Amino acid sequence: MRATFDADHLLELLALSETARTRRPTYAQLFDPSLWRADMEAAGRAAAVEGLRTDGCPNLTIDDLDCTRIPPGLMLAGDEGIYFMTNAVSAEMEVLRAYGRHVAYAHEADPTWMPCKEVRHAKHTIFGREDGVEFLGAEELRRGLAPGSLYEVHITAKAIVLPSSKGAYNEAFCPDRHLRTAIRDTRR
Q: Which of 56, 100, 143, 168 has the most CB atoms lying inside 10 A of its own CB?
């Protein structure tokens, strides 16, 4: 299913992420040992590694991460609508929040102007019934972002397809599933 976003708004959010000194993690990023603090106690690190190995759950919190290592990018979220938000932690981000510009809603599921029932139906149809957040890196997002345009994302049960070049959707949805860089598997 397709979701479209204002590219200028996404560029604004992405610029905040790229210039931020620290960034917020997604839940999945808690599981990435490359983002863990270098000064984490040896026993805590060993327990986290063991948790990852045995049941996939390291039992860590944001305090165990070095938030300066989190890469720049945006988070695609589906809950009360479908939207992108920056992972930046900065004063500029808080200014955007004060003006209600801290998220960029999909035109198809925007609770700022659509009735709640329509937003919920669009979110379920496009993003799925479950709420969730997927991190998308700055480099992969920038490939298809053109100022003054719409940014079209295709979301399936197994992937998020980003516009990286003209014709990327046809290549990404080919029947034999030989996927190119335009597509990213989001389910582990």
A: 168
